[in-house]
Specification:
This protein has 267 residues and is of the alpha/beta class. 37% of the residues lie in helices and 22% in strands. The strands form two sheets. It has a six-stranded mixed sheet, sandwiched between helices. It has a four-stranded antiparallel sheet with strand order 2-1-4-5, covered by helices on one side. Strand 7, helix 7 and strand 8 form a beta-alpha-beta unit. The longest helix has 16 residues. It is globular, with a radius of gyration of 19 Å.
Length: 267
Amino acid sequence: MQRAVRDRRGDATDGLTLSAATHGFGAGPVLEDVTLSVRPGETLAVIGPSGTGKTTLLRLLAMFDRPDEGQLRLDGTDVWTRDERGRLAARRRVGMVFQEANLFGASVRRNVSYGLRVRRDWPTRLRAWLRRKTGAPAPISVTDHLSVVGLADAADRNATDLSGGEAQRVAFARALAYDPDFLLLDEPTSDLDPRNTAVLEEAIDTAAARGIGVVVATHDMDQAERVADRVAVVLGGRLIEVGATERVFGDPEDPAARRFIRGELVY
């Protein structure tokens, strides 16, 4: 089914782009010569078998690791040519949700607000403090972000009392709370039941509708087909196919991608 076109915050030059990126960890490259971009307001699914380099790709996009070769460009500028302050400002524009929720043993509200306290720059924190002191209207609240994942009534619960699915939904709300320009999700629903999976997929749509560029790394091709505007296929550390979701799943150009999508590829 054709997916609706989302509102954009900018054009393709405003994206997050890996260009000719190669990266490894000592025993040869995990990713090799990958060029891939995500635009504001779109959802890009990265599919491929386990161990093919999907998480490494996300780590490069998140600026956790510097590519051994190639560039990571944000708004057309290589982030690794910026000084430390410039890179920190760039990192604050990218959020990531890991496969494990990694919540603190505190209230759900405190977990979600943590991102606001840590990821905002000092001018933004000062403006928030002044709003509280002067009684000015507040921006979107923690409860609003929890509403996106269906947990508005759980703000005062302790995170240790949550189910695994609820914890992952809180992790998504925490990443959404500081309004990143790009949101990276690493197998976000791999261990979740259908209800929690559906809630997170709706939250992905909400994030994209707000103009956030979303990248979802998943081995669940059905999920990729449900949530993504575009799909990238990674096999053996190489990007072998990328394009509109309907085209990639319906008529992939690369023979290996075609076999993988049909379940015929042995790896």
